[in-house]
């Protein structure tokens, strides 16, 4: 075997080398293509490619089954057996794994399991790059400067187990972040998009959106901290609800440690969380947001278990018509809590039943704030899921259906659970790029939300 061996061959060889009672091998092939620009000019572009191999060994003992996990990149033929032995040694040196369950039994084998991994190239920008260049010219003529980057990743994951599981998933993932600034850098506006292939991204439309926002910012209005009717755009809603999803472990809730814990014991599954008929859901087959249809777990935690690798994933409603329907569970935590099995899925959609665009919601606002995005989100109190963070790249005052100027930035203190309870309107659901969590979670579709009393706790001096 050489360093150029096919991923499925590496998986099979690692399984052959294993002497443990059970073994899971995950080979991840990654390739990226990127563009960066500043001051209306392309600055860099690049291509990368790499491989990461994860070996999970399980060892049965009198007190239970232990697991050991070792991951390494760029594993050569000579390093494969030491990697397998290291995972086995880690398992034998560990105590029984609390989440231990029998490894998932084999189902249908992925038809492309033995095929070469998919890879991205600079060709993914064939249409986007010329359109971006035209946007540079328009921005220069309009007296604004464009900064940003475009990144496309393609990951092929091969999963094999000693119980016969042989699965593969190819995941494309593209992100575009674009900033427009005034020449004196006193005004800034941001727009972002998530895409699978950059065929649905229009730099001219984004530049026009940013030009409009910079024009709004020509008039500056200072406002004090306080509670304001606020329109949260889809990107801000995504950032808040992704954090909520990450905080929805059934076990943590059952142990009384989260906002989803019921006073006196148990969880809040079944409780009404929103007056609007909101449905928060995940679906690996959601058009345009497709994600892995089976569990891929490189490590165990509160909401993931290496023993669950290969479990099929399906559509899951986390909140259904305003009621809490599911919390994330592994096989282990589902048994502990008595809740249904509901592993995490790598996308998130909020359906609110609304039809109005953000622009139409602005037109229907008597007086309120319009946000661009949120930044530096951090948890303050897990018991209420109180979060704090900053607004960024444009907060605008709306009066009588029109944006009348830009106001100062704020620090906010809010819980996404509380926001869902108080939201008075949800707009049309659309694909969006989370600004804060875009490096980790990009597959989201959200509506804009109208919140009558969003808590801007203090004024921020950021741009």
Helical fraction: 10-25%
Q: Look at the structure and give the mean pLDDT.
A: 96
| Shape descriptor | globular
Q: Structural class of the helices, strands and pairings?
A: alpha+beta
State which percent range the strand residues make up.
35-45%
**Count, helices:** 9
How far apart are the termini?
Answer: 54 Å
Write the H/E string, N to C.
HEEEHHEEEHEEHHEEEHEHEEEEHEEEE
Number of DSSP strand runs:
20
- How many discrete domains? 2
Q: Unreliable runs, pLDDT <50, ≥5 residues?
A: none
Kindly provide the radius of gyration, computed on alpha-carbon positions and rounded to a whole number of angstroms: 24 Å
Strand order of the largest sheet: 3-2-1-4-5-6
Q: What's the story with the biggest beta sheet?
A: 6 strands, antiparallel
Task: Describe the overall structure.
The chain is an alpha+beta fold. 20% of the residues lie in helices and 38% in strands. The protein has helices at residues 7-17, 77-92, 128-141, 203-216, 234-246, 250-254, 331-337, 358-363, 416-422, and strands at 22-38, 41-61, 64-73, 145-161, 166-181, 188-195, 220-221, 226-232, 279-282, 316-320, 323-324, 348-351, 367-381, 386-399, 402-407, 409-414, 425-426, 430-432, 444-446, 449-460. Helix 3 (128-141) packs parallel to helix 4. The N and C termini lie far apart (54 Å).
């Amino acid at each position: 075997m050489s360093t150029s061996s096919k991923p499925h061959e590496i998986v099979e060889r690692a399984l052959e080398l294993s002497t443990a009672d059970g073994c899971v091998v995950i080979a991840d092939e990654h390739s990226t293509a990127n563009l960066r620009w500043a001051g209306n000019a392309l600055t860099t572009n690049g291509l990368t490619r790499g491989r990461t191999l994860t070996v999970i060994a399980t060892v049965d003992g009198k007190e239970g089954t232990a697991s050991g996990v070792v991951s390494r990149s760029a594993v050569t033929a000579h390093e494969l057996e030491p990697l397998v032995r290291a995972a086995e040694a880690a398992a034998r040196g560990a105590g029984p794994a609390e989440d231990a369950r029998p490894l998932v039994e084999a189902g249908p084998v992925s038809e492309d399991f033995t095929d070469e991994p998919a890879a991205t190239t600079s060709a993914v920008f064939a249409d986007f790059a010329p359109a971006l260049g035209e946007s540079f010219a328009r921005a220069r003529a309009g007296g604004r400067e464009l900064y940003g980057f475009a990144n496309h990743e393609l990951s092929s994951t091969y999963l094999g187990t000693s119980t016969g599981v042989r699965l593969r998933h190819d995941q494309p993932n593209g992100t575009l972040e674009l900033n427009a600034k005034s020449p004196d850098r006193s005004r800034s506006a941001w727009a972002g998009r998530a895409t699978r292939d950059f065929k649905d991204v229009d730099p001219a439309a984004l530049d026009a959106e940013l030009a409009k926002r910079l024009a709004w910012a020509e008039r500056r209005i200072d406002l004090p901290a306080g509670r304001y009717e606020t329109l949260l755009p889809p990107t801000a809603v995504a950032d808040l609800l992704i954090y909520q999803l990450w905080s929805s472990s059934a076990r943590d809730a059952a142990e009384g440690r989260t906002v989803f814990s019921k006073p006196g014991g148990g969880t809040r599954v079944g409780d009404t969380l929103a007056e609007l008929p909101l449905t928060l859901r995940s679906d690996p087959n959601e058009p345009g947001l497709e994600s892995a249809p089976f569990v891929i777990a490189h490590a165990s935690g509160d909401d993931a278990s290496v023993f669950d690798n290969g479990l099929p994933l399906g559509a899951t409603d986390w909140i259904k018509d305003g009621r809490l329907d599911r919390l994330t569970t592994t096989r282990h935590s589902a048994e502990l809590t008595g809740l249904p099995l509901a592993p995490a899925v790598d996308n998130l959609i909020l359906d609110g039943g609304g039809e109005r665009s953000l622009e139409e919601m602005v037109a229907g606002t008597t007086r309120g704030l319009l946000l661009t995005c949120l930044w530096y989100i951090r948890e303050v109190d897990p018991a209420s899921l109180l979060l704090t963070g900053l607004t960024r790249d444009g907060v605008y005052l709306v009066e009588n259906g029109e944006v009348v100027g830009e106001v100062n930035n704020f620090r906010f203190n809010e819980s996404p659970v509380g926001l869902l309870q108080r939201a008075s309107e949800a707009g049309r659901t659309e694909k969006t790029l989370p600004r804060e969590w875009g490096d980790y979670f990009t597959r989201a579709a959200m509506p804009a939300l109208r919140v009558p009393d969003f808590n801007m706790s203090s004024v921020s001096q950021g741009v």
